[in-house]
Amino acid sequence: MKKLIYCFSGTGNSFRAAQIIADTLKDTAIVNVRKDPSGYSAEDADVIGFVCPVYEWDVPGRMREFISQLSVNPNAYIFMVATYIAVLGKAFETVEGILSSKGAHLSYARTVRCVASQCIAYPPFPPEKLMLPLMEKNMRKTAREISEMKHRKYPHMSAVTRKLYPKMMVPFLNIEHEYDKGFYTDSRCTGCSTCARVCPAKNITIIDRRPEWNHNCCGCNACVVYCPAKAIQFKIPQAYLELGNPISKGLKLPAKRKRYHNPHIKARDLMD
Ligand SMILES: Cc1cc2nc3c(=O)[nH]c(=O)nc-3n(C[C@H](O)[C@H](O)[C@H](O)COP(=O)(O)O)c2cc1C
């Protein structure tokens, strides 16, 4: 039986979920969506999983792109697990839409509430101490259900979220690629290239032993939180401040920010 999990993860929560599911299913490969989908086809797979965070009330752009280019077996048991904080939006609908264009469908879908990963903009919340045991418990429960090949319908975007989406999210999505204009390195950067190797969008090039961001960013923060020297800093990019909508007006970075990544996931887990 061929079992594959395709995973996007910036701060490790989704990768941790993928890892627990793979261990429970046994003999299951995890494919990082950094890879080229043509080399990791699911055409002959019996069990296919998609695990990723919710970004901007949807799935990250790289996840969407990857699934669109992937060949899948329409008769496989297909599951999706979305890690998030509070607002799911249309994440499952997006993936179901792509799959249905290939004649395939989600058999099982579940969300797992996690610690917020935009920790460069605000402190991690809810507190890790409180959340980590709950996350582990929910990930294990999800993994058990998947190993029993249970079926579970996916939740749709709520009517309120659907109404707010164009005003609240679309302006951010239009400038998301510029998120990386906020990143810069300080003197602690050793040019080790960890940032480039964990970036799920392959958006970083090392030039003269320093990272350069190529403005194809998805805002995952992997580069910041997995930098072994804590040398990558962040300021709010000008384009975000100039948006002039209620969210951008409230953007302010607290003086103290903690670099959260899931404690079970190391940088090497996210590299290819
Ligand atoms: C750019 C970005 C956008 C996010 N958007 C949402 C969102 O719309 N709804 C939500 O509930 N959580 C959102 N989150 C929180 C993440 O979904 C959550 O922390 C997730 O577990 C991160 O997964 P990872 O650790 O695998 O990267 C967002 C995080 C980032 C970095």
Primary descriptors:
272 residues; alpha/beta; Rossmann fold; Alpha-Beta Plaits; 11 helices; 9 strands; 33% helix; globular; binds flavin mononucleotide
Overview of the molecule:
By secondary structure, the chain is an alpha/beta fold. It folds into two domains: 3-160, Flavodoxin domain (Rossmann fold, 3-Layer(aba) Sandwich); 172-266, Alpha-Beta Plaits (2-Layer Sandwich). The chain is built from eleven helices and nine strands. The strands form three sheets. Strands 2-1-3-4-5 form a five-stranded parallel sheet, with helices on both faces. Helix 1 runs parallel beside helix 4 (128-147). The longest helix has 20 residues, at 128-147. The chain is globular, with a radius of gyration of 18 Å. The model has no long low-confidence stretch (mean pLDDT 93). Bound molecules: flavin mononucleotide. Residues 9-15, 53-57, 83-87, 89, 114, 116-118, 219-221, 262 line the site of flavin mononucleotide (FMN). Flavin mononucleotide binds next to helix 1 and strand 4.
What is the total domain count? 2
Average predicted confidence as pLDDT = 93
The count of β-strands is: 9
Ligand list: flavin mononucleotide
Q: Helical segment tally?
A: 11
Largest beta-sheet characterization: 5 strands, parallel
Tell me the helix content.
25-40%
CATH architecture of the largest domain: 3-Layer(aba) Sandwich
Helix/strand/pairing category:
alpha/beta
Quote the distance from N terminus to C terminus. Answer: 24 Å
Shape: globular
The CATH C-level name of the largest domain is: Alpha Beta
CATH fold-type name of the largest domain: Rossmann fold
**Which stretches are poorly predicted, pLDDT < 50 over at least 5 residues?**
none
Tell me the Rg in angstroms: 18 Å
CATH superfamily of the largest domain: Flavodoxin domain
Q: What series of H and E elements makes up the topology?
A: EHEEHEHEHHHEHEEHEHHH
Strand content: 15-25%
